[in-house]
Design a protein that fits this description.
There is one protein chain. The protein has a 6-stranded parallel beta sheet. A 3-stranded parallel beta sheet has the order 1-2-4, with helices on one face. It contains 8 helices and 9 strands. The two termini are about 25 Å apart. The longest helix has 17 residues. It has one domain: TIM Barrel (Alpha-Beta Barrel). Helix 3 packs parallel to helix 4. It is an alpha/beta fold. Bound molecules: fe (ii) ion. The site of fe (ii) ion (FE2) has 5 residues, from loops. The site of fe (ii) ion has 5 residues, from loops.
Length: about 240
């Protein structure tokens, strides 16, 4: 029996079974606080058709757990718990790298192990409130490690202009939009920007950026929207290539 019949997806041209952005590794950042909450959301995702979730804990110096071995250990425990529950959802450990001096230096250091997605992408974010002077250096650092940069939720930075979006694309940056943005989860302006990016077919990946149960419900609700799934199906989404 499906536990979440109320969020059963509609038949849609949008094939989306891999989530590339989430904060579901328990107790490591501002995402889910404990194992129980993590399992409940992952179970919900599994029941509603997702097959793989990339865990992307914030990589922000001095704020959150950034020790790769520790994160891997917690991910393993989570996987064991999922197995016990009979949840066959695949997990992958990635990271969401914040554009700040310490993190750029970390990426530039070839000795440093990075939390990639699929061994070829690196998810990174900008500060929400101001333009970082490190944008070009961050993008070059990621590319110099042989990885393709994916900018997390480009619609959430109020200072980016349509020209900035173009320039980032020309620099080789891929865009990951957050599903909730299209339903107004982060306000009207973010929704407007998300719709602009999707209409321009600039969205390369979709992610949930789930931090809690409310984000989960919001995300699942959007996936029942015809206008959302139709619009996004016209974008060159690469989520399925990570299955
Ligand atoms: Fe995030």
């Amino acid at each position: 029996m499906r536990l979440f019949p109320f969020i059963k997806r509609i038949t849609t041209p949008l094939q989306l079974e891999v989530d590339v952005h989430s904060h579901l590794l328990p107790g490591v950042d501002d995402g889910v606080e404990n194992l129980g909450k993590s399992i409940a959301i992952l179970k919900g995702l599994w029941e509603s058709g997702w097959k793989k979730v990339v865990l992307t804990p914030h990589q922000m110096e001095g704020f959150f757990v950034s020790d790769v071995e520790k994160l891997e250990k917690i991910k393993k425990e989570l996987e064991e718990e999922l197995k016990k529950e009979g949840i066959l959802l695949q997990l992958e450990l990635g990271g969401e790298y914040y554009t700040e001096p310490e993190i750029v230096e970390k990426i530039e250091n070839r000795e440093e192990k990075l939390l990639t997605i699929g061994g070829k992408y690196l998810l990174f974010e900008f500060p929400l409130g101001f333009i970082s002077p490190l944008v070009e250096r961050m993008v070059s650092a990621i590319k110099n490690r042989g990885l393709t940069p994916i900018l997390a939720h480009p619609e959430r930075y109020p200072y980016l202009t349509p020209t900035d979006y173009q320039e980032l694309k020309e620099m080789g940056v891929l865009f990951q939009s957050t599903i909730g943005s299209f339903g107004g989860r982060y306000g009207k302006n973010v929704k407007k920007r998300a719709l602009h990016l999707a209409k321009e077919k600039m969205v390369d990946f979709l992610g949930s950026d789930i931090h809690n149960w409310q984000d989960f419900r919001f995300t699942q609700h959007l996936l029942t929207s015809h206008s959302f799934t139709y619009l996004l199906s016209k974008n060159p989404l690469k989520n399925q290539s990570l299955l």
